[in-house]
Every structure is written in C-alpha cells, then in structure tokens.
Amino acid sequence: MAIRIALAGNPNSGKTTLFNSLTGSNQYVGNWPGVTVEKKGGTLKGNKEVEIQDLPGIYSLSPYTLEEVVSRQYLVTDRPDGILNIVDGTNIERNLYLTTQLAELGIPMVVAVNMMDLVRKKGDRIDIGALGKALGCEAVEIAALKGEGNQEAAAKAVAAAKAGKAAPSAVFEEDVETALQKISEQIKGSVPENLSRWYAVKLFERDEKVVADLKLSADRLGAIEREIEAVEKAQDDDSESIITNQRYQFIAKVLAGAVKKAGGKHGLTVSDKVDRIVTNRILGLPIFAVVMFLVYAIAMGGWAISIGTMGTNFANDVIFGEWVPGLFDTILGALGVAEGSVVYGLIQDGIVAGVGAVLGFVPQMLVLFLLLAILEDIGYMSRVAFVMDRIFRQFGLSGKSFIPCLVATGCGIPGIMASRTIENDRDRKLTVMTTTFMPCGAKLPIIGLVAGAIFGESPWVAVSAYFIGIGSVVLSGIILKKFKAFAGEPSPFVMELPAYHVPSVGNVLRATWERGWSFIKRAGSVIVISSVVIWFLSSFGTVDGNFGLVDDLWENVDDAYIESVAQDMDISADEVVAMDDSLLAGVGNVIAPVFRPLGFGKWRATVATITGLVAKEEVVGTFGVLYNYEGEELSENGDEIWDNVRADFPAAVGGFAFMIFNLLCAPCFAAIGAIKREMNNAKWTWAAIGYMTAWAYVLALITYQVVGLILGQVAFGFGTIIGFLLLAGLIYLLVRKGYVPEEGARNLTSVQAAR
Amino acid sequence: MKTLKDVAVGETCVVSKLHGEGPVKRRIMDMGITKGVEIFVRKVAPLGDPMELNVRGYELSVRKGDAEMIEVI
C-alpha cells in the first residue's frame, strides 16, 4: 500500500524547493475541493510507493485563513501516514510554532531544519539531536536548495510513518494540561483516540469550526466551558492567548537547550542592508517605479529590450501567420479538402485563426511570468505590497492588487492570474473582477480607431482610456467593498517580509512554465469552442431564402436582392456584403436596440462588439469586413475605413461611448476562461462578467446622454433622464455608508466570505 | 496607554497586552507577537504606513491601525 507523506511548513521556508527536489517531474497540480487554493502532489523520486502531498504554506492551524482550513481538513480527515515538517533554521523560533501544532495531530512526524548552510555561515549552531528530543520527534538538517539531506529527510519520514509512532510532548503549563486532560475525558468516544489531544486543544481555544463539527451535548459543552473559564480566570487572559503564549514559551525553552546564536540581536545582514535601500523612505517609491517599468518594458513594451513583444510579433506574424496555416493547408490539401469548403473554413478561419490569435501572446506572457517569478523568488513581491499598501487600502484593496493591474495593461489573462498572490479570498475576487478594466494591448486598436475616425487622432483619447480604466478599478473597489460579499477590513495586513535571497533557476523556470502551461491549456479549450461558434454565426445565414454558407450563396444573387438587403440594413447598395445575410448580422440587428441609448445602436457596431469577445482586436477587423473594405489588408488602427466609421457615429460622443463600452465590458473569451479558473465557481464567474458588462453599459450611457447633452450633441429626451438617474445612483453607491458587519468587522474571515 | 504605533523607528519595546479579538488578533499572535516579547521597530514604509518590525528574529510588517491594538512598555 502506498505511504502518504504530507509536506507542511511556513511560507518562505523552502517548502517548494524541497517538494520539487523530492518529486522531480512526478507532480500533479489541482485545486483543493471547493476553494481556489492550489493543491500539489507527487510521488517520491526513486520510490513510487511514497506519495507526497504538498500542503499550502501556513503559519498556524487557526480556523481563519483558507489555506489553514484546507490543511487542517486534510490532516484531520485524510490522515496522512506521516508529516514531514520543514522548518527554516534561520527563523527557527516562529517556524517551530507550527511544529508544536502539527505534533498534536497524533501523526508520526519528522522535522527537517532547512537552510542549515546559511545558519552555519552566520555562525549559529543548532544541536539537532537535542532539538528532536525536546520536540518529541526526529529532526534532521537539510539545505534544500543545495540538495543536501533532502532524500534522507524523506527516508526518515517514510520510516517514521511505517513505525507509526507518534508521541506528542506536553507543551503547556500544568493548569492548562490538567484542563486538557479533563476536556479529553469529556470527548472520549466522540473523536478518534489519536486525535484526542488536538480536539482538546481546539475546544480549549473555543475554535468555532471544531465546536460546530463535534456537536457535543449542552452538558458536555458546559463542563468544558467551566474548565476553560477556571484557567482563564487564574491566568487573567483569554484561552486562545494562553495557548499561543505557552507555545512560544515552550519553544523558547526548547531553543535555549538546542540553539546557540552567534551575532548580536539586531546586527544587519546582507538582506537587511539591501532592504534598507529598496524600501527606503525616499528611494523606495522611485526604485519600485523603475522595477515595474523594466518588467513592463521587457515583457510588453515596443523597444529594443522588449524580448516579450518580439517573441509575440514573431509568433503572430510568422508562426501563426504563415507556418501553421501553411501546415494546415498542406494537410487539408493532402486529405482532399478544397479551399472554400465548409471544413476548410471551419479549420482555417475558425479554429486556426482563433487559437492562433491567443497563442500568439504566449511568448510575451512567458517573459512576464519569468520576470514575476524572479521577483517573487528574490523576495521583492512582499516589499511591493509593503510599499503600495497605503494607496490601495484607500479603495478597499491591498498592496498586492497593484501587480495584477499593472500586468493587465499588457494582457488581462496574466493579470487575472497574478491575483493569485493575494491571500485574502475577498480581495482576490475583487481584484479578479476589476483587473480587466485596464486597457490591454488588444484594446489599443479600438482606441486608435475611435481616436482616428472621430476625434482627429487626438492623443487625449488614449490618455483618457487609461484614466477610465484606472478610474473604473478604483471606483469599483469603493462601490463593491460596500456590499456584504466584500465588506470588512481589507484583510489583516500582518505579513512576513522574507529575507532576500538569490533566486533558484529551477524554481523560477518551473513556476514560469506552470503558469504558462495552464494558460495554454485554457486557451486551447475555451478559444476553440468560442472561435467555432463565432465562425459559424458569421459564415452561415439565409440568402434569398436558402440557408448555407453566405459566401457561396452570395455568388448567385441578383441586384434586386442586394437592393432589398440594403434597404433592410439601412445602408447603400454598394456597401452590401455577404456577411450582411449571416446569422451574426441577424443577431446584431436584434441586439442593436439595446445599445441605442449608448449612441451606437447600429448593427455593425453591435456585431463588432460581439466579435470583440473572441479577441478585442477583432473589433477593428470586423468593421473592415462589414464596410466591405477590399484593400489588401487593413492596417492596425483601420485608417482606411475611418470615413465609414465616422458616418456611423453622427454624434462624436457616441463613438466615445462605443469605445468605453468595448474597453470595459466582458473581456475576451480567453480572459473569461481565466476568470472562471481563478474564481473556481460558476456563480462568481457570471457575477464578475455581469458586473463588468453592467458597469460598461452604465458608464457608456452616462457618457452619451449626460456628457452628450452638455456638449450639445445629444438632444434632451427620455434617455437623458435615465442617464441622470444612473449618475445619481452611481454617486449614491460611492458615498453610501455600506454594509457594516455587526460586532466588529474584523471577525469576518475569508473562510466565511468564501461561502 | 502606549501602543506599538507610538514606538519610534529604531527603538525597542516589550509587549504588555494585546487588545481586540478575532482573526487579526490571532494572526498577530500566531506571527509571534505575544505578551512579553521584544519588538524592534525597523522602519516605516515610504508612504508612512505600514511599519516593519523585527520580532523573534525575523521581519514582520503590520499596519499602524493594527499596531494600535498592541500595548507596549
């Protein structure tokens, strides 16, 4: 039978490094049931019989964060055969705090003291034998990054698991231990024998989750409560604090006998010296700005150092522009599929073009993920949160929300994925919901089209687009925070600032690849389906009473029919194209009235908006097709069709409203897929998309009706009243007091919010 | 009552009592800020908040609003 070992430890303790070193490539990644916390497992290198389950990095087994609850649940209900607890030797005091809690679970455990190379370098000494003895389990020295002792630690954990012996040591003072004894007697029979101590401690702490799970009788609960109160009275403190204090006192005793520190208490290490400059009061912000600019420039920009952009241009123009279509041409030709047939169109125009449009972004994204992984591994990311927290807290987000917004100016998908570093579930959801408001690279052509066609190429249109994006993130943060689902403190910002260290090449590359691959997989599924649907809708339709491929049927139509279509569509006869008879045009015609209050209720703008769901740059291309543009190829900002576009937007402000709507509404399918993956919940995904679309609609309507009226471009009417009403509603949502959880907002935990 | 918020950068203090309740308090205690522990205030973020502390041999950052819950001497 397979032996299951759980790998547990604090964040930044080198747990990932150890896990990678133990499992190599035998890993599988999933999600813990019901939550968005990543679940990683693998088999031990050289011994397929041993399964290693990587638990999330946690500081404690409290019932308050998702990661802790998930780990607890696994340890208590799934009962692994052994625990390998990794402990950072350079920060041993706090790391052992989790160890004292893990020891109570009655599972055989081995403590691996990591970073021993750094400990020795500092001149500190850890007596590993004495440490193990005091903790009541075996302890081993390792240096995970250098690969020293990793396999031995795993072997010891397997041996301990086989032996099956677990002997938790008495950690607390006498009166607490006595109370725990009495509580154990009360719950005898209700809990498994070997978990008795863990449950007793949790009941003593009045852990809500355990109290709810055990469903003890009122009598027993009363007896337990009396025990707790007696100790609380004697110690003049609450039970949770007593337990925590005594754990740390126990650790101090253990360390007194096992650790000898060399240097002075607050001596500056290299890491401290680096940090003094990086988060300096004056230099901190400029350094931060430079780092972020470099990340953006290398991954997304258009300069000589922009490796990411070069890769993406190559992928778009050569790989998915020539090679892949060429390859499919050859394959289809060999299979006897003629150009112009339905199958050919489906594969080349539908799937290849659609998937290619998304996969083209992969090089850019890999470069971006690589840079972010390096910054994370160095330890700079937590400093970013430290520096930016003050600003982002003002509108209900935490310092960590900055990174997703920055990344989203390149592409929304990695932006959404970057939100994963935010621990608090509410803040993460809020960030996922608002990140794609930022104008991503694919939205730039839309801005270019509107600026060029309607506003005489004014640069202010682009500038305003960025302000609208940032403003939408900020205002949405303020508004949504007032709703019950998001209310509460912006998550306790009690964050470790890990020591800087040189990034490990292996860890960085692995993290980059994992994120990149999950993007590719998602693009593969969501994009294929949506591309096929849009291709079908735009290629098929009813021409002169016959249903089929509109391009084929169109070859047989006469002038009289074209005239009738022109009349139906309210356009001149020479503008009529085959696509006007497609199902998509039909859909556009039906939906168009919805957009009339926004000033672009013509079906062409509607159809362009729909195709924008496949990829935002499609909006301009669709206009090109619909205006029957016959030139070689439309330029990126579509300057060849500016005259036609201008004619479609009699009021300039309507064009601006069109831009606003397309920038802010539901993002492309690939980004929707990313949102779904991060939310891991259909209801939240739809809520996010619905909110974005509603926000875009309201803002565009206010712009067209209210701003249009002020500028004298739109006449006063029913729409104006709606516009003013919406504006008033928006202001109300911004300034209202909002939902305040009763009895201390601080009690709302992320676990409850996730329900 | 003197709280951690009032401690100047570069000074050391000792925790005498923790106020408040619920997740934030538990989190603060879990991170090693318990009665009797020594805290060294290393610095304050460029925008004045949060602050960086050295406690039990590692660096921890807390918001000033939360530091107010920590009574020190």
Radius of gyration based on Cα positions of chain A: 31 Å
Mean pLDDT of chain B: 92
What overall form of chain B do the CA principal axes indicate? Answer: globular
CATH architecture of the domain at 3-163 in chain A: 3-Layer(aba) Sandwich
Estimate the mean pLDDT confidence of chain A.
85
CATH architectural designation of chain B? Roll
> Which structural class matches the secondary elements of chain B?
alpha+beta
Task: Please summarize the sheet with the most strands of chain A.
Answer: 7 strands, mixed
CATH topology of chain B: SH3 type barrels
Helix content of chain B: 10-25%
Summarize the structure in words.
- The complex is a heterodimer of chains A (755) and B (73).
- Chain A is 60% helix and 8% strand.
- By secondary structure, chain A is α/β, with parallel strands linked by helices.
- In chain A, helix 13 packs antiparallel against helix 16 and helix 18 runs antiparallel to helix 19 (412-418).
- The radius of gyration of chain A is 31 Å and the shape is elongated.
- The two termini of chain A are 36 Å apart.
- Mean pLDDT of chain A is 85; it is low at 743-755.
- Chain B has a single domain, classed as Ferrous iron transport protein A (FeoA) (SH3 type barrels), CATH 2.30.30.
- Helices cover 18% and strands 37% of the residues of chain B.
- Chain B is built from two helices and five strands; from the N terminus they run βαβββαβ.
- Chain B has helices spanning 22-30, 64-67; strands at 12-18, 38-44, 51-55, 58-62, 70-72.
- The A-B interface holds A 59-60, 62, 64-65, 90-94, 97, 237-238, 240-241, 244-245, 248, 265-266, 275-276, 279-282, 284-285, 382, 386-387, 389-391, 393, 489, 492-499, 744, 746-747, 749 and B 18, 20-32, 34-37, 40, 43-50, 52, 54, 56-63, 66.
- Strand 10 of chain A pairs antiparallel with strand 4 (58-62) of chain B.
